[in-house]
């Protein structure tokens, strides 16, 4: 205790630690061994030579009896660190986590993380985890099947459904093996089987679908599975097995409680549709009336009107129409799409919901309701015994007092179109003129149709007036621009007409009427390349339009490419194989190409279909005259005589054929008959004089006197024509009496060629026959040409007597949406 001193409060408890005793200082910097030990691991190794530090052993190590060198124990009696004794290496530390083990020999690898033992063995899933993974896979397959069906890939959807069914069966088997059969997921099983049945039905594999549905319905573990009998009824309806369809619909109806009114209404409507397909309108009416009394809807109301129309009950049609227009649609007002303020975020939200799927569904429902009401009104009005206009007015009044007020104008418009179909143009014009005070769209539509009506009546001034009115009401109305172009076209201002057609195409690139008329305008301007381009574009839109293909053929013929013209006319024949005008045109082209056999075939077929076409009869007659078949030629020219009895040239040719065939007596009788009909015909008198002289008849002097008188009268008339003082009545009488000079001067090249061929019937010393053939030069206008080249009006469809009241009336495309 004497060495123990009590600390004084003032003393520093930590003083003296930094004191340095110079006794322990040595020159370490100059010690080579110390510096080498610091720089390397030399200082941490046991010395090989010399003596061990802290031991009494000398510099040389001791050897064992075996001759091996072995370090001795330390002074404390423990082995030296790192020494090997009894085959074991002493660890350098007592901590095993450092990686050392007492069982390892010297030289073993240092592996503190145990990587040499390899990866850990995988954990094994429990049966419940395997079941959950399999359920997840089945749900994924069902989703993939549904997505494939929505994209239209029905085969992939069916394959996924089948795979889901196989996996679900494996799941049930695995649950049974694991002893958890009581925990089967019935909802998953129901989903798999229902999806499989649906996919079979979508792929039209009806037997497999029915088998799948039956398996679901018979399974008592599925609640409300009886409703699937509706799907089975739908399949039987597609198979036209109507009795079984009704049976399953009624069985499904029994499975649905009265609380589900909408479901029961849909099933009843399906039953009514089957009755309509079977023609049992009374049963269908009973089901539809039940629906309209409980849960009325637009489709059921429209079908009820159809059934009354089929049954002929006109009064009930009007009552059903009143029920139809009173059905609530359940669509909110359009005011909800008007932003309440100028807030940008509110406007963005309104724009987002304005075109979403819900809004689109509402618009589709409204459009379908308007279509049903309009169609029902058009069905009701013609069915009434009273006047057509009064019944249409009744429908308009009913609509004005309903929620479909905007349809009243459309019905008025349809009334005008109906009057137009009944050829009551005045009534149609009166109704359309009432739209002049309506909104711009209806005003433009009415003015467009008025312009069309006046154009058809050839009142081009009124047509031009209402076309301008339609354009002022709606300058982007392509139909109005087309009508305006038509009024300019008939005034032969083709450049200006083309500008209107171009503007109409800029507003509506699919306006086929404007494109057609633009091609006609270019053709009149002799811009054949531009016209060809227009009609080729139109052909790309209207693939099977014979009118367009005929125009292409005509343009190619004008360009001198007869082969292309023949190609397009052959396409016209494929569309309308019984068109005699096209067949005659093909005959003409083949004749120009020098192919007489093909020309004869097409001309003969044209004559068979339409034996009243003069140029066809003329060509056939000339062809048989060239072939020396005068009897055959006589048959065709006699037909021409029946068609044009006032044309003396055909009778003269018939008489000439008789003479060339050697039947002189028949020829003389024919010439006498011609003289009785046309006593002033100089050509006939000349032939009679010559024949009477050759046959030594006593009438020769009489015919000679008449010939001189007729020639003198002819000279007097010619002098009057030359002096400009001719009598027009006498000129017409001379033309009908047989003078062919004027006709010869205006004859076409084809007529001149035919005239040259006909001169072969006579010899050079028979001038009367040669002169008589000049009558063939009278030109004949092909009615197909002007009909084709007439500009089309804004409405492509014509008004026919036998047209039904449908969606094809004039101006339907101009109605406001």
UniProtKB/TrEMBL annotation:
Cross-referenced InterPro entries: Sel1-like, TPR-like_helical_dom_sf, TPR_rpt
Pfam families listed in its UniProt record: TPR_12, TPR_6, TPR_8
TPR repeat spans: 226-259, 546-579, 580-613, 614-647
SMART domains membership: SEL1, TPR
GO molecular function, one term: kinesin binding
Entry protein name: Intraflagellar transport 88 homolog
Region listing for Disordered, in residue ranges: 714-817
Keyword terms, alphabetized: Cell projection, Cilium, Flagellum, TPR repeat
Species assigned in the record: Nothobranchius rachovii (bluefin notho)
